[in-house]
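Single-chain item
Fold in token form
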Amino acid sequence: MVAIETMARIPKEARGVLKEVAARWADVADGGAPVEVKPLKGAMTNLVYEVIWRTEREVDRKVLVRVYGDGVDVFFDREEEVRTFECVSKHGQGPLLLGRFPNGRIEEFLHARTLSASDLRDPEISALIASKLREFHGLDMPGPKKVLLWDRLRNWLKSAKNMCTSDEAEEFSLDKLEDEIAKLEKELSGKEETIAFCHNDLQYGNIMMDEQSGIVTMIDYEYASFNPVAYDIANHFCEMAANYHTDTPHILDYSQYPDVEERRRFVQIYLTSSDEKPNAVEVEKLLQSVEKYKQASHLLWGLWGIISGHVNDIDFDYMEYARQRFHQYWLNAS
């Protein structure tokens, strides 16, 4: 039987939904009571748990319980995020939604391993991610195909200003960022951009892989929206500087940012479809766009860090993370 103190980590309302989920499975033993609850590390917006039941077979039943972080509704519309989750699932991407409770949900547990930071540098795994990202960008999702990036940046900047002390606002140069956002938008927005439904948070912890089949699955669509595909790729490259499973998960190592050959290989695979291969001009054009959009990624996640530092109590040094993202932005600002 699972320890009482361990099960107590799961909200009371969620425990009732877990019973309902277990009741759907005739092979669950012990009267439907879970035998183990495991906190999963690496999540920075929510608390995530693996819940396990014993069964009459050799294979246990498992689900994933996601408890929403406090105050994070400033980042996205939770109802819209759940609708996205359901729609992506219907397209055969990601886990199924098994149940909901007031401050979280219960998801299908994918029997695949979550990638590690080093996996992103593995050429074979990186190729699988590139192909999967192209597939994800091709999803026929509802809603206006309007870029969200610039409105999100301005909204998060407004929230950060409202939360920050005067010293924090000065440290992060918040009074300068509205002009920086406008400058980036003017430089990057154009009719030739490819707009698609983007993940917008493609860090290694949001990618899973079935070792036997080699199938890659992208999970966690809280920040997903229509955006330029170059931004989504740029954001993925920026995430290669992170390792959220160390003693200092907030520390970024930009020596791990992919070099030009790694970036070119990823983009080339991304642009390759079943019936044609991209020419050199297409590859270079997207590569250049990606490198410009990494500045937007630094700004966005820098603001995310500031806001999270004020609203989230997960054990993560959000403010230091924000400092590093802004430092990278100003290093590359023209």
